[in-house]
């Protein structure tokens, strides 16, 4: 498995032409993107807590919004940006689409509050943005889910309105618009940066023109914030996240070109630690992570990095102290708590240690209570409940995982029905299984799937 501490949530539609899309989950990256969005959302009159900001593991440069208040950033955009100010600018523009109601509309009957529909929304949107970026008429080939969504690239008029709205948010928040102008100019010029070939699909989902950039510049230059440099603390956090994503997603040779050995900065160490770990150089990866963790004993993500790499290198006992520290320092961030739960589960499996198993169960329960969109945590809970001889809860965890990973909803429904058959009727877990079964049923009907699956008799 090449996955590291970042959690991958596979999201894919049923349409054969829809390429699998991956949502990357990483505590540090998500916190950064939310902190970037917060002052801009307030300026836009949006509640920052109702925004969902999702990172798509895709090396092309793009960002887009969908129904509800979902903002998607491709990892390629975060990596390509020259500084945090460019990301702030793009965020302001995307929030302009949301506040202006330009988001993709879905047909009636999609109820975003339901897990399946929410993920269906994500899957459809992700696949469609890809289609729109790569081939003009691809939305037609993307099948039912895409066809329902009536996705089109934004009109020129919507683009100018999002530009002007985004400029107003940046100005109101006292953030310079220089980054946005530079980002757009570079996309217009299709300049490739770094040693990394990147495709630019942003230009096609948000049609750019010189005229548009000049109008935007005029609105931004008028602000006293125009000459203000980005907040150094935010810039440092961005640089580290960029290093992390680069190290996580690109080949070691590419990473070493961007961050040569001589670069002892934190972003370089994060990048090389991940890249070396992925390339199988465990000792070197641990050495880089140890250097970061020693230099930053109070930084939850530095401790998390070391803990993850030790855990995934099979050094489970050594992984526990930095992971416990990361949980404490992050105030119990659910993604990091989930990682500690995973380490304890492995420790329990190795040593037949009932105490570690109980602690793992408690931590992973807390993880999914606070953020259920964590397929790995459900996989681990299923393993724990299997070890404890609790088949109905294994079925429940399986149903939860299947409802997140965008597969055939008939499989999720079957797992949920198995859970319902064995759990105490009316208990919280039973009610949850019922919710999943109902949502899966709705999804089956929405997709027009036959009510059968291999090995299953038709429902009477
Ligand atoms: Zn746009």
**Whole-number mean pLDDT:** 81
- Named CATH architecture of the largest domain: 2-Layer Sandwich
Tell me about the biggest sheet? 5 strands, mixed
Unreliable residue runs = 1-20, 104-152
**What is the end-to-end distance?**
41 Å
Number of domains: 2
Q: Would you give an account of this structure?
A:
The protein has 460 residues and is mostly helical. The chain folds into 2 domains: 7-233, Metalloproteases ("zincins"), catalytic domain (Zincin-like); 258-446, Tetratricopeptide repeat domain (Serine Threonine Protein Phosphatase 5, Tetratricopeptide repeat, Alpha Horseshoe). Helix content is 63%, strand content 5%. It has 22 helices and 5 strands. The chain has a 5-stranded mixed sheet. Helix 8 runs antiparallel to helix 10. The chain is globular and about 65 Å long. It starts with 6 loop residues before the first strand and ends in a 14-residue tail after the last helix. Residues 1-20 and 104-152 have low confidence and may be disordered. Zinc ion (ZN) binds at residues 93, 97, 154, 159, 162, 206.
Features:
five-stranded mixed beta sheet; 2 domains; 5 strands; Serine Threonine Protein Phosphatase 5, Tetratricopeptide repeat; 22 helices; mainly alpha; 460 residues
What's the structural blueprint in terms of helices and strands?
Layout: E1 7-11, E2 21-25, H1 27-43, E3 52-56, E4 63-66, E5 70-74, H2 75-80, H3 84-99, H4 115-134, H5 138-141, H6 143-149, H7 156-173, H8 178-189, H9 202-205, H10 210-221, H11 232-249, H12 252-258, H13 266-278, H14 282-295, H15 300-312, H16 316-329, H17 334-351, H18 354-370, H19 375-387, H20 391-404, H21 409-422, H22 428-446
Parallel strand pairs: 3-5
Antiparallel strand pairs: 1-2, 2-3, 4-5
Helix pairs in contact: 1-3, 1-7, 1-11, 3-7, 3-8, 4-22, 7-10, 8-10, 11-13, 12-13, 13-14, 14-15, 15-16, 16-17, 17-18, 17-19, 18-19, 19-20, 20-21, 20-22, 21-22
The structure holds zinc ion (ZN).
Zinc ion binds at residues 93, 97, 154, 159, 162, 206.
